[in-house]
Amino acid sequence: MRLHRNLVFASIDALNEIFNENKYADKAIQGTLKRDKRWGARDRSFIAEMVYDIVRWKRLYAEIAEVKEPFDRQKLFRLFTVWATLKGIALPDWKQLEDTPTRRIKGRFDELSKIRKYRESIPDWLDELGQKELGKKWDAEIAALNVEADVVLRTNTLKTTPEKLKAILFDLDLETEPVQGVPNALKLKERANVFQTPAFKDGWFEVQDASSQLVADFLDVKPGMRVVDACAGAGGKALHLASLMENKGQLIALDIYANKLNELKRRAKRAGAFNIETRHIDSTKVIKKLHEKADRVLIDAPCSGLGVLRRNPDAKWKLQPDFIENIKQTQAEILDQYSKMVKPGGQLVYATCSILPSENDKQIKKFLNSENGKSFNLAKEKTILPSKSGYDGFYMALLTKTE
Ligand SMILES: C[S@@+](CC[C@H](N)C(=O)[O-])C[C@H]1O[C@@H](n2cnc3c(N)ncnc32)[C@H](O)[C@@H]1O
């Protein structure tokens, strides 16, 4: 592979924005890719791959390169030389790359790979937390969370079928395959930007990981029901729920952020999902008005996001232990208060994209032992681990409220 100067320099700029200006990796990459219209698909994937890799392996590469934060441009180039050397890419004779000790890089990589926190490139606190929560399973999970995620589509059954979607994408040279156990999912055989396709613009599919697609199914909604999606955000699961409800009945999408609900409305229009009503949670009244009114409630709770590190590698560096402690408190409060919206005999799903038991089954156990939780029974629960499934880490529990 020949390294192109403008692509490498643009990637270094993106890394500077991520590490020194606190930008999210996906936003920094998106902005960088817009810079030069002449860049083709290969150039774009080079930038995305290199930047994501260096973000993902920041700690390991910095140890190998013997550089400490803050990373000025010279240090960023040293991280880049580690990346290129480990990938077996011949380095050009640019002055920024002079005196790269290639053999030493490989030696240090072998040495540091013996220690998990370096091998998996994670902060000390995260390694300790993972070990404490998952014990022997942590090794395999953190390794799986460092693998680049597949692109999975969810067919919008309000507009088409997986078979038709597969055929339409095939005509665009986008090959897909079904995902076992996830009926409306199609996995891309090769990464591609699917957002430019007419099928996406016409609302035939959404990009949604296979594990995430199991959440709406878990709630067992039926057309004509009143369903509340209590933490709807920009609506990934709400759109899925609307399609399972065949646009019949009422789907009330709540969130504390109005801007996310606006995005949901935009997506719903594209998807042809007409039974969604958004309500901004700007006071406790919004929840009180819905007490005992819903056949089904989905709590897709705010969480650490540790199950989706594959697609957000910079979360390793942005997450803090305090945030996780606070979010657990929020999860408990949400379960306590929002469960009141379920009708007697109705059902509730609590879900997270975390692999930590303290955010998942332990949170549910605590709720079931609380005053409000006493009227619920655990019908079933599912923990999806990335090492076993190959998809994102998720947890979901279905609770039934007594009549
Ligand atoms: C995991 S995300 C939801 C993702 C969304 N359901 C989807 O499928 O695209 C959690 C959401 O909870 C929202 N949230 C945080 N605190 C909340 C609260 N107290 N009440 C309701 N929503 C809350 C966040 O704004 C965020 O959109």
TrEMBL record:
Active site as annotated: C353
Record's GO cellular component terms: cytoplasm
Keyword Acyltransferase part of the UniProt annotation: no
Molecular-function annotations in GO: RNA binding; RNA methyltransferase activity
Pfam families from the UniProt entry: Methyltr_RsmB-F, RsmF-B_ferredox
Keyword rRNA processing: yes
Principal localisation: cytoplasm
Function: Specifically methylates the cytosine at position 967 (m5C967) of 16S rRNA.
Protein name: 16S rRNA (cytosine(967)-C(5))-methyltransferase
Gene label: rsmB
